[in-house]
From TrEMBL:
Protein name: F-box/LRR-repeat protein 15-like leucin rich repeat domain-containing protein
Record-annotated F-box/LRR-repeat protein 15-like leucin rich repeat domain positions: 30-120
Domain of life, source organism: Eukaryota
SMART domains: LRR_CC
Organism of derivation: Ambrosia artemisiifolia (Common ragweed)
GO biological process, one term: SCF-dependent proteasomal ubiquitin-dependent protein catabolic process
Gene Ontology CC annotations of this record: SCF ubiquitin ligase complex
A Pfam family the protein falls into: DUF7885
InterPro entries listed in its UniProt record: FBXL15_LRR, Leu-rich_rpt_Cys-con_subtyp, LRR_dom_sf
Length: 168
């Protein structure tokens, strides 16, 4: 699956709610051009879930283009990519219904991006931060912003002897 074949499929999926084009699915190799093509599909505004896990061929440019039209998004997996705070700012500004986000291994996302995301997404309940370059103490700061936020992996917070709420 490449940019053209994936966008062609999505363009004809009018009632699509969940889009998983992770690298592990179908052997997808999407680039920014593919994300731009996907952003023009009518179903994008109704998507509740998008997974772009492991898509190393995408950058902030493509992610911002796609996310700017995905206003109904509740779940986003963008782990294993090379996005930066620029994408996270776009997610925070475009996705007011976001409940969970996977930023696993997004080593170019900083504390600033995470703080904006947690502040601007009032429904955010779970965030996966495994493999990021963010200091442990900053996760405590995120919990002061949103005490019920589930930070995954939980072992990060268990090191600080902080009681955890169950993940549903």
């Amino acid at each position: 699956m490449d940019d053209d074949s994936t966008s062609r499929l999505v363009r004809y999926a009018y009632a699509l709610k969940d889009l998983d084009i992770s690298k592990s699915r179908w052997g997808c190799q999407i680039t920014d051009n593919g994300l731009y093509q996907l952003s023009t599909a009518k179903c994008i505004i109704n998507l509740s879930s998008i997974s772009l896990w492991g898509m190393t061929g995408i950058t902030d440019k493509g992610v911002i283009q796609l996310i700017s039209r995905a206003n109904s998004l509740q779940h986003l997996n963008i782990g294993g990519t090379f996005i930066t705070d620029e994408s996270v700012f776009a997610i925070a500004n475009s996705c007011p219904h976001l409940k969970s986000v996977v930023l696993w291994g997004c080593r170019h996302v900083t504390e600033n991006g995470l703080a904006v995301l947690v502040n601007k997404c009032p429904k955010l309940m779970t965030i996966n931060v495994w493999g990021m370059r963010v200091p442990f103490d900053f996760f405590l700061t995120l919990l002061t912003i949103r005490p019920a936020l589930q930070i995954v992996p939980q072992s990060i917070l268990n090191m600080g002897n902080i009681p955890l709420l169950p993940v549903f």
